[in-house]
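Narrative of activities, Objective 1.

The group set out to show that a structural description can be obtained from nothing but a protein's sequence at a throughput compatible with the screening campaign. Below is one input-output pair from the validation batch, recorded exactly as produced.
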Amino acid sequence: MSLRRPLPLVAGNWKMNTTVDEGVALARRLRTELDTCRVEVEVLPPFTHLVQIAEVLRGSRLRLGAQNCFSADKGAYTGEVSPAMLVGLCQDVLLGHSERRHILGESDELIARKLRAARRHRLRVILAVGETEDERLDGATMTVVDRHLRSALEGLGNVGEGELVIAYEPVWAIGTGRTASSEQAEEVCVHVATRLDELIGDVATTVPILYGGSVTADNAAELFALPHIDGALVGGASLEVDAFTLIARACEAARASGAGA
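Output recorded for this entry:
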């Protein structure tokens, strides 16, 4: 398999953190620190922040994404946000995060419907996949990752460059301080690359594969040196300007050196 070289991406998932004012201040500081970064940098704040942060980032190189969307454009779905509502506010949407799958009970089928709805509105999808600790201990990691990828992407067709990102996030590493070893992370990301080639063809080589799960400024350089990791989906560290900046700059350095990302 040839080494992939899509444009690396470092995305910060703020989850249910920050007030609007705190989020705006954070976005301003990140723009100041990272607007010159030579890899893609993105923030994914809560829905309530999108309008104001879109203004903060207007004219910036930083991308803005939503943490979720619904599978229909409109209707009697109290509390949901449709992809049609996101158009003009952000460029991307994160789908399939383990907290949506395992805490809120989202099925593979629902995530697939959401992905197709987002694509109808030309939102780039960051699709998160990954196994629980029990699934890894049972030797089912690749089976679970396959299921997540196939359920969302099989038969999708017409995927163009710049329309999709995959984030491998082992559930047991998210917010726990535990990170997959380099060997574990690379093994799964190679597997993801192989499946993408089967599912979406030649465009697979343009799809960034991110690692997520307790990514920090201390372990970022080691992760980005791996051949099949093209960036990171960052949780807690994305709320800290200095830490997130160091992670993004580590990705930039890895790309400049030709190693990994």
